[in-house]
Every structure is written in C-alpha cells, then in structure tokens.
Amino acid sequence: MMEFQLTDQQRQLQETARRFANEVMAPVALEHDEKHIFPHAILEQAFELGLLNLGVPAEYGGLGFSCLDQVIIAEELAAGCVGMATSLIANDLAMLPILVGGTDEQKKRFVQPFTEKMGYASFALTEPNAGSDVAGMSTVITEDGDDYIINGSKMWITNGTHAQQFSLFGKTDPKAGHRGITCVVVPGDAKGISRGKPERKMGQNASDTIGLTFEDVRVPKANRIGAEGDGFRIAMKTLDASRPITASFALGVARKAMEHAIAYSQERKAFKQPIANFQAIQFMVAEMAMKLQAARLCTYQAADLVERGEKASVISSYAKALAADYAMEITTNAVQIFGGYGYSKEYPVEKLMRDAKLIQIYEGTSQIQRMVIARELFGGASPSGGLV
Question: Measured at the alpha carbon of residue 241, what is the angle toward residues 301 and 290, in degrees to the nearest 5?
C-alpha cells in the first residue's frame, strides 16, 4: 500500500523549516541577493537548529534524516531563499560521496567533525571544460609513495570560498575514461589550492560559487574514498541521491511564485474587478498547481527509492527535470501575472524567476536528465518507473 500522508514527525520538520524560512531567511533574502552577501550568520542559526548536515547518520553525530525528510525540509528552505538553501545543503552534497563509498573510519574522520562544529565542505566534480561530460575531466591524481599529488581545476564550486574540506574527483588513470576517476578528500588548507573570486551570477546570489585550482596538492592515500577507479560510480550514486533534493529546491521556488501570483491576482484590479476573476489568469494558476503537485509526487517517489536503496537513476532524473522545468515555467508565468510590476526588482517574482533558471543547470542540466532517461528506456527499462 502506498502512503501519501506525511508522518507527524515529518509535519513537524516541515513546520520547523517553514518557520525558519519565513522568519529568518525571507526577510533578508532580497538584501543578500542584491549585495551578494554570503549568509554565514543564517547558516550558523540553521546549524544550531539542526537544519545543516541533514543526511548524516546518527552514528556520526547527525540526525539521520531520511531522503524524504530532507526533500520536505529543502522545499521549505528554498521557498525562503533558494540561494541560501543551496549553500545550506552543500555540506550534504559534499558528505554524500564519503557516506556512499567511505569506510567507517573515514566517515568518523571526514563527516563527524562537521556535526560537532559549524563548518563548510564542498563537492568538487565539475571543471571549466567538463560539466555534464564528467568523463572528460582533466584533473589528474598521481601516486607518490603513500601520497597522491593533485593537479587541475574545478569550477562552479558551491561554498568554495569557505570550504574546510573538498570531496574531489580526478583521474588516477587518464587513459581509462570514466573508469579512471577516483575520489579523494582534500583538506581546505592544503598547500597548492588557489581559490578564485566569487562568480557574478544571474540568480542565487546569496550562494557562494567559485573556481578552484590545484597545483601539486599533496594528500595521503588514506584520504581516497573507495578504490582507485571507483570515483565515477560514487559520483553517480551521489547525484542519484542528491537530485531529489535539488528537485525540491524547484518545488519551493515554484510554490512561492504561485502563492505570490494568487495573492497579487486577488488584489490587482482591471476593468473594475480583480484579475483573479478572469479565466486567463485562473487557468494559468491552475496549471501552476497541477504541475507543482505532479513534480512533488515524482520527487517524493525518487526520495523513497533512494531511502530504500533501490535504483533511483531514472526516477531521480524524472523528478529533477520535471521540477526544474516546471519551476522555470511557473516563475515566468508569475512574472506575467504581475505584468510590468513583475519585471521590477521591487516585487518578489523577479528574483524567483532568476533563481529558478539555475536549477535547470546545476547537478545535471535538464537535457542531461533526458539523456539519462532515454538511455534507460532504450535499454529496456520500464517507462512506468516500476509502477504497475
């Protein structure tokens, strides 16, 4: 029997995250966006409240929230400010490769400290010339006795300016394609790391995003996660688990845009009546609600599969692509409902539209999600995603 009701605990988590988003994040979201302010003080409050490092198991000092719990929380945080939410969830993305492929000792060494004291970790996979084409990365990891030497560049690294630790992917065998990729944990203070200036972005400006350069950076082999050549599998399994959370960012942005559109259309008058009375507006809002609910159900299903340890690649891609694309459509239509005011920075839907665009790009573009889905379907996977 499939359950469509949240548990009492999940409703409490939802309410806690919603209150934090409404009372702490939303009031300063516009200022952080306009001035490109990194929300360190807000993230510290989130840490104290238990809204940072959501997926860390209890045995390593975390609260052990399920993937569905994290999705529920992330939607609420994104509704407050998705730029802040992206930086808030970045630790979980950085910890996932270690939780997926690390030993118990490595989890205690690299994960547990972040549950004991506020700190930042970053996921370092993408490169200037290798985004969606992960196998095309050029960062090289070479052996030197009991150490590895890292040379290369990474791009679009969330929280990179502040990170005390990187989960980095590079090639220990450059000739082996994706089979030559290995994951290592790199201390943020390692000699040879250069951090670029924060990127000036269209949206999500409260989130810190930089490029990194590694020049003869030395780390012990004990920092390798999994075996040599196991990095691609670890990265893909990480992204399968993280995409439902990214999809939930889109849900939060889209929901907030719809709420603003509904409220505004009931206040704004044209031809002596609220524009909410016009069928054109009603149909636009109805489409928003339909697509938001469809994306949410798909996202919840993906989270459930991840939590049960079942193959989630296709459903995670369904969820990420659907939610991201719908969020872009919903925020664009919210701007349309606001008319000229929607194009003004004085009204909230303009920011939501800018913020939504990035969700179609990071953690695998909407086009890459379609490639993943098509590859599975043409390989014989069930288009129902296992549902009968």
Answer: 35
In the set 75, 127, 228, 363, the catalytic residue is 363
Q: What is the CATH number of domain 232-378?
A: 1.20.140.10
Which residues of the chain form CATH 2.40.110.10?
A: 121-229
Query: Per CATH, the architecture of 8-116 is what?
Result: Orthogonal Bundle (1.10)
**Secondary-structure class of domain 121-229 per CATH:** mainly beta
**Lookup: tokens for 27:** 């009031």
- Condensed to tens digits (0 to 9), the pLDDT of residues 311-334 reads 889 999 999 999 999 999 999 999
pLDDT digits (tens, 9 = 90+) for 52-93: 999 999 999 999 999 999 999 999 999 999 999 999 999 999
Active site residue 76: no
Judging by DSSP bridges, how do beta strands 121-124 and 165-171 pair with one another?
parallel
From the DSSP assignment, how many helices (H) and strands (E) are in the chain? 11, 10
pTM for this one?
0.93
The amino acid that residue 341 corresponds to is Y
Per the DSSP assignment, residues forming a β-bridge with 213 are: 153, 194
